[in-house]
Predict the 3D structure of the following.
Amino acid sequence: MTPRVVFPNKVLPYLLIAPQLAITLVFFYWPASQALYQSLLKEDPFGLKSRFVGLDNFRRVIADPNYVNSVEVTAVFSVATAFISMAVALLLAVMADKVIRGRNVYRTLMIWPYAVAPAIAGMLWLFLFNPSIGSLAYLLRHLGIHWDPLLNGPQAMTLVVSAAAWKQISYNFLFFVAGLQAIPKSLIEAAAIDGARPTKRFWTIVFPLLAPTTFFLLVINTTYAFFDTFGIIHAVTGGGPGKATETLVYKVYNDGFVNLILGDSAAQSVILMVIVIALTAIQFRYVEKKVHYG
């Protein structure tokens, strides 16, 4: 039976969690409650006058074709970003795990991009693929590819997905490497003795044992694609061309801070929060059942 920890001072536990509770209340629950309250109001652009309109803001947002387009853009963007960043990170982690000489150097170099701010990461990719001065855009033109993400929607989406995935690969790589190190080498050696090839060993032994890590990263990458990629999209495309890369979080910014439609923007933020909570709950409800924590 696990011994129970008892604090001699009954006030001490509350003092220890007080800073975290204060941060959560000030920076999460208070803004969330304000967004929920403002979503029920119609305000002038300066916030001087407001009146209660109930769910009218939500009805107008859901009926807006531009909002439906943002939902579709977000779905494509988030799935592509999560899949590419996790797949590439897993491949690099497996390769780095096999390197003997200089293994720590490779791992350190792979982690560096995570320290780059999202806006800086976006600008790096924008300079590389700028149709006028970008070195990689110049290479694409010589390969016969007409590259212009400033005017071509699918190319703009490809660019922001690449930048967002590149930014997140380092984070995923770090956890996949830790997961690979936790797998007993005796299991892999036993499979090799039985004649299993490297590919079969990976899919039948290594990958199933990485299921907890993969599930954790799936949840984190979904949240990252919905929220933390705002800086990349703002720096690279600004939601264009023609709203081809305007995700839900960027539309909240456009309507609230640029167009000053405060009620609609607040309603969109509430809907976005509900979508992310629902996706996370679905992942824990259905995906986690297939996760083996053995």
Summary: The chain has 13 helices and two strands.
